[in-house]
Amino acid sequence: xxxxxxxxxxxxxxxxxxxxxxxxxxxxxxxxxxxxxxxxxxxxxxxxxxxxxxxxxxxxxxxxxxxxxxxxxxxxxxxxxxxxxxxxxxxxxxxxxxxxxxxxxxxxxxxxxxxxxxxxxxxxxxxxxxxxxxxxxxxxxxxxxxxxxxxxxxxxxxxxxxxxxxxxxxxxxxxxxxxxxxxxxxxxx
Length: 189
Fold this sequence. Notes:
The protein is an alpha+beta fold.
């Protein structure tokens, strides 16, 4: 099957909680793809990556998303995570207003780096508090009305929703583990 010039040579799913991937990785190794993407949280992305390396499955580009974007991914794998890509919604080094201060305060409080889940939760709370102040109410219809008006940049990035309440302003990024750090490699800006 060719779509946009790409041919999918292996497409498999596995149940949540899977930790043994040798049969799947043997299929991948036989197919010899240029690119391999596993969509899994850290609990599955970590053993998948480890077994991929142990079985000598080599590809030109490997992405473990979203699991590869979590700080624990590199902590568990060390150099095995080197050059792995992951999609992410946020990075501690992005130049969003208040992001540096958020990261510093988070690290002081919890003695570890925040993940994108921490940043999105913090930004969501900021937006909620602001909407409550502007609506002068906790009424959900009034809060929704206020949030529909918001166009803002938070520690998590741009926020804006359409009339359905769907996020339309936030842009994701791609990171790659380089020398023990998650480097933002896309977009260029």
